[in-house]
Write a structure and sequence with these properties.
The chain is an all-alpha fold. The protein has eleven helices and no strands. It has helices at 10-22, 26-39, 44-56, 60-73, 79-95, 99-112, 117-129, 133-146, 152-163, 167-180, 186-199.
Length: 200
């Protein structure tokens, strides 16, 4: 600022953005990353930073255009770079209530990292909100493979099957959930089993 002959580089603005974010100055960090993009319009790192900053600032809608631009600029043959961008995009879409785009983004993550438990859980919650029980069942079965000792997954499968009208299969999963459930969680499973037995 003191010397007009000195031209800050994009890298310096990037470092400034990190420093400002660490001190809690999110607005300053946003301005620093925008300054990077003024000088390097295709800097995906700065776009990702803006996604994070707008998310953390509670303004997810402002981050969505940067998410979409970053994804469009990242080559398809770089899945390790695409996965975190899609994951962040999913968070931003979800935060503004755009369920279908959030699902699409997280399905992209799932295609790249099919064993990511957080992605599968988030997808299950979104499909639950849509009452898409076939997808809820599919995800519950995938999660059972990854976390075989977690009662929540067979319970989720049982509930989805019950809504699909497949009480016998639902009962099998409910009994499996009961064998895994901790004492504090057993009552919910017992009530489901009783309801399924009454329906059969």
């Amino acid at each position: 600022d003191a010397d007009p002959r000195f031209l800050p580089t994009p890298g310096m603005y990037s470092y400034l953005g990190v420093a400002l974010a660490r001190t809690g100055d999110l607005d300053g960090a946003i301005d620093a990353n925008l300054a990077v993009l003024q000088r390097q319009p295709t800097n995906i790192g700065a776009m990702r930073n803006l996604m994070l900053l707008y998310r953390d600032k509670g303004e997810p809608a402002e981050g969505i255009p940067w998410a979409e631009q970053a994804i469009s600029l990242t080559p398809a043959d770089r899945p390790d770079e695409l996965a975190p961008l899609y994951e962040l995009a999913g968070q931003l879409y979800q935060a503004v209530g755009l369920v279908e785009p959030a699902i699409n983004a997280l399905e992209q993550v799932r295609a790249i990292v099919p064993t990511d438990i957080n992605t599968l859980r988030n997808l299950s919650n979104l499909y639950n909100a849509q009452e898409n029980d076939a997808k809820v069942l599919e995800l519950a079965q995938a999660l059972m493979q990854l976390e075989p000792g977690n009662f929540e997954h067979p319970l989720s499968a049982a509930l989805a099957l019950r809504r699909l009208g497949e009480e016998a299969s639902a009962l099998d999963y409910a009994n499996q959930a009961l064998t895994l459930a901790p004492e504090a969680e057993r009552q919910e499973v017992v009530e489901l089993i009783e309801a399924l037995n009454g329906a059969s």
